[in-house]
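Please, structure for the following, as tokens.
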Amino acid sequence: MTTIADSPPSSPPDRKWQPLSSRQRRVFGVLIEKAKTTPDVYPMTINGIVAGANQKSNREPQMSLSADDVEQVLGELRAIGCVTEVQGSGRVPKYRHHAYEWLGVEKTELAVMTELLLRGEQTLGELRGRAARMEPIADLGALKPVVDSLIAKGLMIELTPAGRGQVVTHNLYKEREIGELKARFAGYVPPETRSEEDSPSPVASPRAVAASPVASAGITKDEFAELSVEVAELRAEVARLRELVSKLEAKLAAVMS
């Protein structure tokens, strides 16, 4: 659901975005993600951002940021105009992102960029499944124009050739990081398109899926990756809802006692 806090600008701005450090990408990505998935806790406190940055699901790599770390990163993001501080209840400072204006994107493009900021390089199948929890993306065909637009804007880069199993990532890395990524994927051949004559891939496929269950089920690896992501996200959502119900039951019990 799109809220006022999660609405793109009426007209695209001039380019404002620039490379971000890994910690900046994580904090920025968390603010965008929570604005879309849990608007009731957005804008976010520092403690909320810490929890989101360090959570075990939908994050790559795992991080262990402290409140001081996050406060420092927020200061850096505020300095470049992609985050602002707002006054929360009880005089607790809260923070909101300005990703639509700063990146110059629309809703679905931002959902895709958010998953790339939170997890880095991934196949289009994985990306479609993960971004669809924030904005509707029916299938890979629906993802294609979004990818094309982000590439045209310079926000996304292709690490492997177009086609089945293609790997993409965002373009907000520092120069050294992007050079290392391109070197890792040089000459990479997706497993599902590799012939017997092809030499082994120099890198493992991002979040690769074992071939045997895929082949036996008669589906492609992209399809299997999408289904796996959707199942994982549904489990996480069920766990969140269970926790919410438990809290509501506790409050009700307290009122009734």
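The chain has a mean pLDDT of 83. The first strand starts at residue 83 and ends at 87.
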